[in-house]
Amino acid sequence: MRTVFLVNTPSGQVVPLPHDMSYEGINELEIHREGDVITLWPVTKKRRNIADSLAMPDWSDIDLEPPRVEVTNKLADFTLLVTK
C-alpha cells in the first residue's frame, strides 16, 4: 500500500495522485465516501448520461397543494356531479 500527503487549500483538501494512478484524458471525478473509505470514479460522457437519467426530477416548479373544497352541513346542498 502506498501513501500520499494531503495538501490543505482554502477550498478543501487535495490528494495528489501518483503518476501511475493518474487519469489520462479525464478532468472530472465523482467522489463517494462511506465511513473512512473514499472512492473516485472518472466522469465520462456515458457515465454522466446515466447519472443524469437516474437523477431525481426538480419538483420545485410543481404545485403540490391539493385543491380546496368547500364542505357544508346542509343536506340540501349535496348534489352529484357526473363529468366525462
Quick description:
This protein has one helix at about 45-55; strands at about 5-10, 10-15, 30-35, 35-40. It has about 80 residues and is of the alpha+beta class. This is Virulence-associated protein VagC.
Report what the structure shows:
There is one protein chain. With 84 residues, this protein is an alpha+beta fold. The protein has a domain at 1-55. The protein is 12% helix and 21% strand. The protein has a two-stranded antiparallel ribbon with strand order 1-2. A two-stranded antiparallel sheet has the order 3-4. Strand 1 and strand 2 (12-14) form a beta hairpin. The mean pLDDT is 77.
Write the layout of secondary structure elements.
Blueprint: E1 7-9, E2 12-14, E3 29-34, E4 37-42, H1 45-54
Antiparallel strand pairs: 1-2, 3-4
